[in-house]
Amino acid sequence: MPLSLDLSGRVALVTGAARGLGFAIARGLARAGALTVLNGRDAKALAAARTSIEGDGGRTDAAVFDVADRDAVQAAIADLEARHGAIDVVVNNAGIQRRHPVTEFPLEDWDAIIATNLTAPFLVAQAALPGMKARGRGVIINIASLMSEFGRPTIVPYTAAKGGVRQLTRGLATELGPTGIRVNAIAPGYILTEMNRALIDNKEFDTWVRGRTPMRRWGDPDELAGIAVFLASDAASYITGQTIFVDGGMSVCV
Ligand code: GCO
Q: Model pTM?
């Protein structure tokens, strides 16, 4: 079988794609030939992201919906399938982060983190699966985290959610294996994104990340695009249920 990374003819949906990891992954999938649908809740930001990717030669569409709203997800997926005939690849990237000592963590912040980081990937997968099953193929890529495996103070809900994303990936892969639908996860380490701005700007934290990471640096969002293209492609045809850490080595050293 040819080692093909070509995504021509495929339609890929990336949630939370206006900026950061989602935008970098969407651009990577478009560069590999996929018609890439960018999801977010800010139509203006999505339009700017689309212009950037199309200026790069990519083909895009946009889908404005709240990934945590089941009815909105169902309607959006139905609309995309009507417009594009199929959704071949789903990247569940949308995520939020809140940081508080666990004893002071507001329940509404817990609820928001679980809704966006864990429930939403389930909802989007559940909406996309009927079409994928009908076609006998499909790829779901969930964005997990270094925190799927490790903890750190002040981000307990995020850690719980991302631990769940790893198991969601395994559960979906197990149940869907016979259908030809593959489900994998990417676990980023410390990446230079706006979600991490407060950490990047904190000299002490920045020094800790660089010292704790074998490659002695933060990752760039574009360094997540390659693994996304690979997992979406036929080159990964026998890979499912896996979580791939893209973290400069942080997850393997003491
Ligand atoms: C934090 C960060 C991390 C990173 C990333 C690591 O507060 O420690 O937000 O959670 O964003 O998820 O994989």
A: 0.98
Give 180-240 as a DSSP string: TEEEEEEEE-SB--GGGHHHHT-HHHHHHHHHHSTT-SPBPGGGGHHHHHHHHSGGGTT--
152 CB near ligand 1 (under 6 Å) = yes
Q: How many whole angstroms from 145 Cα to the centroid of ligand 1?
A: 7
Q: Tens of pLDDT along 208-222? A: 999 999 999 999 999
- The minimum-distance atom of ligand 1 relative to the CA of 190 is 6
Which pLDDT score, from 0 to 100, does residue 5 have?
97
Taking only the tens place, the pLDDT of each residue in 150-162 is 999 999 999 999 9
Q: Decide: 58 in ligand 1 pocket, CB within 6 A.
A: no
| Span from the CA of 196 to the centroid of ligand 1 (angstroms) | 7
